[in-house]
Amino acid sequence: MRAKQMPSSILTRSKSPVILLFAVAMLALSFFFFFLFSPSSTTTSAAVTVPYRHPSVRPETSFVASLEHFLAHKAPKIPASSDDTVGSVIDHDVRRLDERKFVKEMEWLRGDPYYPMSMPVRVYVYEMPSKFTYDLLRLFRNTYRETSNLTSNGSPVHRLIEQEALKWVTDQPAWKRSEGRDHIFPIHHPWSFKSVRRYVKNAIWLLPDMDSTGNWYKPGQVSLEKDLILPYVPNVDLCDAKCLLESESKRTTLLFFRGRLKRNAVRGGKIRSKIGAELTGAKDVVIEEGTAGEGGKAAAQKGMRRSIFCLSPAGDTPSSARLFDAIVSGCIPVIISDELELPFEGILDYRKMAVFISSTDAVQPGWILRYLKSISSTQIREMRRNLAEYSRHFVYSNPAQPLGPEDLVWRMMAGKLVNIKLHTRRSQRVVKESRSVCTCDCRRSNSTHSNPIN
């Protein structure tokens, strides 16, 4: 197996379980920050007291700027004749790897009183062929201005990686040993790796949400126990402490929404349309049909910074970047999305900074505004204080910062390690008569609605 361990300066302890990171770019953004930023995210809790992990370097929050710098200064020059083939893997290779891991785990078990709950998480990154890594990033950089949708099926990204990259990683001894259970796939777009998901469903998926309606993910592919929800990259600028103070007196709009009012999803689209029709023209409410681009970003940012509440309804998917735009703008999100799962919810309590409304209540005439007006000024001030505190958890940056999203990913991942090891070991010893283990497709979905929307 060709794998590269993270630098020892980052991994301060060696007695910790291992996760293998398969970081081909199902979405180029996901590839970039997990391949590049994960070393800084394995910091221990002691590092939280410092303002920046790298005090001499100001964090860069622009993906494109970070990508340009990475390719210009950090990406190695790989010879054109480099070997990108995978040698045949035999059972002996897998057994030898398993034996080495067993010996090391026994050392940790005898020597570390807290094993297997050790921190930081120990991560390996595959040294994949350049056509799946640096070449792919260069392709993204060179074509993002010309290609309207780099993440759709049939795009250069998908044509390049889906079949060949899948074969490459599943031929590795580490994959065969665990059947992928200790591997991570950044699948942070509903279309990412869609044609080959059934082959990698045992792996940990980094997802934008978990639509349990079956529109985006098939039953049994995703679960909160196995996978991890990540936030979208906000489209608007962070409203820092100074900005929040200056905007306090300007927040005269009760409720703001800017975006597309008609979406394709059967349920989410109907609900959004009904809510839009109900709220349009109401006093102290701004409902705008919005578009992407710099003009749309400026209008959304201005509207959010002048509003107390920001509407975040479901659309084609349960979540959207709009939720995180509201958070970093200091605008209290009003979440109407029955199937929504949220990032880092094992660490963060969203009830302290957002309002949750079921779709059944939301479509009742006048219900949303009556509810929002019933929230006291004291509660609003408390939620806005919490927004100011929480916003740092949703701003991706290079270098990654303590308590930023990159850091919280690995904190959440640490909680999954024991379960990963359990299912890996169990899969290695079961016989064909062994009973099946219930997975998430046996359980009811997380749904708050009770009546269908006509």
Automatic annotation (TrEMBL):
Protein's UniProt keywords contain Glycosyltransferase: yes
Keyword Transmembrane: yes
Membrane topology: Single-pass type II membrane protein
Domain Exostosin GT47: 152-372
InterPro entries for the chain: Exostosin, Exostosin_GT47
Entry keyword set: Glycosyltransferase, Golgi apparatus, Signal-anchor, Transferase, Transmembrane
Compartments where located: Golgi apparatus membrane
Superkingdom: Eukaryota
GO MF entries: glycosyltransferase activity
GO cellular component, one term: Golgi membrane
Family of this protein: Belongs to the glycosyltransferase 47 family.
Name of the protein described by the UniProt record: Putative arabinosyltransferase ARAD1 isoform X1
Organism, scientific name: Gossypium australe
